[in-house]
Amino acid sequence: MLVGMTTNADAGKGAEAGAGAGAGAERTPPRRRRAPAGAAVLREDVTEAIRAAVFEELAAVGYARMSIEGIARRAGVGKTAVYRRWRSKLHLVLDLVSAVAVQGLPLPDTGSLEGDLRLLYEVTSRALRHPVAGQIIPDLQAEAARNPEIAEAMQKALREGQQSVATGIVAAAVARGEVREGVDEDLALDLISGPLYWRSVVVRAPKLPKGYLESLTRATAAGLRAL
Fold first, then answer.
1. Is 148 left (phi over 0), alpha (psi -120 to 50) or beta?
2. Are 178 and 113 in contact (CB under 8 A)?
3. C-alpha torsion angle, residues 92, 93, 99, 105 (rounded to 10)
4. For the CA atoms of 176, 220, 114, 200, what is the dihedral angle to 10 degrees?
5. Sorted alphabetically, which SUPFAM superfamilies does this protein's record hold (predicted)?
6. How far is CA 80 from the centre of its chain?
7. Considering only CA atoms, which of 33, 8, 29 is closest in space to residue 18?
8. Among the listed ranges 3-7, 69-73, 153-157, which one has the minimum average pLDDT value?
């Protein structure tokens, strides 16, 4: 959709009228000139509709079969609206994946290591087991093996989004005396994020066993204390 595209033909007409006016002619007040519209305005509601359509299209057909035409159709806009914001489907997906990394996960603050881990696992489990995420993440990982740009964006989204939270949980536990200082941050991240990601995304278990998150919480806390 083209928004705000206008012309200024009236300004030229006003100039012509002024040039032909005689000395005794009645002066008419100058017509207010319309400010040029410039570039098309990118409506935020359209942008959000396209972003939502990308996630749905990725989940439905995968990155390889995804097309700008399909995204536009799903979003209820023309292809031009998509191309005005992103020049290709690669740049569109890279932008969305990078946005996930920036948003990250909320940092739990329950007052205890096990409480923080339990809350993190509840939020992460719901996110990873969402049907859309369950389709998109494995598909983009497969594409990452063939496309360095996607690989870099995926690593940024998955690592930085989790790393900031894991670092915060460990730092709070150190401050409370629950974990020793000098913990290896990379190993702590592996302990905190690895098991749930493995089961939910790699193995893609249809359902977590009863009590799994509680057991995972206790095991992870014990592992962090042992570092």
1. alpha
2. yes
3. 160
4. 140
5. Homeodomain-like, Tetracyclin repressor-like, C-terminal domain
6. 22
7. 29
8. 3-7
Q: Give dist(CA 107, CA 167) in Å, integer.
A: 10
pTM confidence score: 0.64
Q: Which two tokens stand for residue 157?
A: 């989204």
Q: In this structure, what DSSP letter does residue 179 have? A: S
DSSP state, 88? S
What is the distance between the alpha carbons of residues 181 and 227, in angstroms, rounded to a whole number? 10
Give the model confidence (pLDDT) of 93-135 as tens digits.
888 876 765 566 678 999 999 999 999 999 888 877 776 667 7
Q: How many residues does the chain have?
A: 227
No. of H helices and E strands in the chain? 11, 0
Q: What is the pLDDT of residues 156-214, one digit of tens each?
A: 777 766 788 889 999 999 999 999 999 998 899 999 989 998 888 788 777 889 999 99
Instruction: Note whether 140 and 156 are within 8 A (CB).
Output: no
